[in-house]
Amino acid sequence: MKHLVTFSLLNALLSSAALCLAQHEVPVVPAHDGMIRVLLLDGQSAGAYHNWKIATQVIKAELEETGLFEVTVMTAPASDGDFSIFKPNLSHYQVIVLNYDGPAWPEELRGDFEKYVSGGGGLVVVHASDNAFPDWPAFNLMTGIGGWRNRTETAGPMWYFNDGKLVSDPTPGRAGSHGARLPFQVVTRKADHPIMRGLPTAWMHASDELYATLRGPGKNMTVLATAHSDPKNKGTDHDEPMLMVLSFGNGRVFHTTLGHDAAAMSCVGFMTIFQRGVEWAATGKVTQRVPANFPTANAVSFRVDIAAIDSAYLNGASSPVIVPPSEAGTVRQPMHAATAPKP
Q1: Is residue 339 part of a domain?
Q2: Span 48-78, pLDDT tens digits
Q3: Which residue in 20, 125, 147, 285 has the most C-beta neighbors within 10 A?
């Protein structure tokens, strides 16, 4: 039986160290027995602080437990590796989940990837995957915004919410920043989108990196949710995009900046929205219900079994308290609460 842990903000903060450890038509093969065919593409990160091998295990487990997805993991070479025999048949899949952060791919693979997405294939970009490929214009159109890897104002403006509206900010500077990994509140900005339908206006996300100062073209981009980047935690004092959807040709893209590690991805909020986002990118619809244990505006909710996929999960941590959802109490207002969006 899967366990739900509902922490007050205080407990979540105390446990944060343990928790953070051209359009072309491409024929997409229908899913086997009605299941959605997913290609989980991994193989590189910018450093050991992003353990892509653990992240792949978590992503695969979260998708397969829904019973909706047939997941194939494919590991690409690192950017400086040998791509001569890496020839994925992308058209076999309805959606690609990208867990890859490298600086470049060969021209042929880039072309195949662009053809797949523009022709109607789905794409899901998870966390640091939006750091990848700073010099690939089409990829940056797919993600909308990204950070690090020497991106500056030449990559595009910063994007954030101001007075309830998405604005662009061309102020010069480097792209990408975050403070310490702490719980923070996520605020819905597009409640009528299929991915967000039925979710609360605001919910607490488990300890994670809150990405800020991301830059990019921001074309065909709809921000689904934001989080306030707290100046007390090296933040910008802006409501930064956390969840986005974009179109690239005929393809649908879901982009989440959340999910630094297994602990962050064990958040029921992350899991629910990620699972729904993959379904939407593949089909344009969402059939999954919002679970009863979805986090509230004041309480973090996460899955111990998912977090424990990373063996470092409980290193140095006291044993968490297992609290059934029916017994979870009200907790204090979070430090990182964001203002609800204006109607």
Answers
A1: no
A2: 889 999 999 999 999 999 999 999 999 999 9
A3: 125
In terms of residue numbers, what domain contains 55? 4-327
Query: Of 145, 78, 122, which Cα lies nearest the Cα of 278?
Result: 122
Query: How many other C-beta atoms are found inside a 10 Å radius of the C-beta of residue 219?
Result: 12
Query: Strand pairing of 95-99 and 36-42?
Result: parallel
Task: State the amino acid at position 294 in one-letter form.
Answer: F
In a domain, 336, yes or no: no
Cβ atoms of 136 and 266 within 8 Å: the answer is: no
List residues bridging with 188 in a β-sheet. Answer: 225
Give, for 268, the enclosing helix (H) or strand (E).
helix 268-283
Domain count of the fold of the chain: 1
| pTM of this structure | 0.84
Q: Which residues contact 161 (CB under 8 A, 6 or more apart)?
A: 167, 189, 223, 226, 238, 239, 240, 241, 341
Is residue 306 within 8 Å of 271, Cβ to Cβ?
A: yes
Does 111 reside within a domain?
yes
Give a yes or no: residue 337 inside a domain: no
Domain CATH code at residue 118? 3.40.50.880
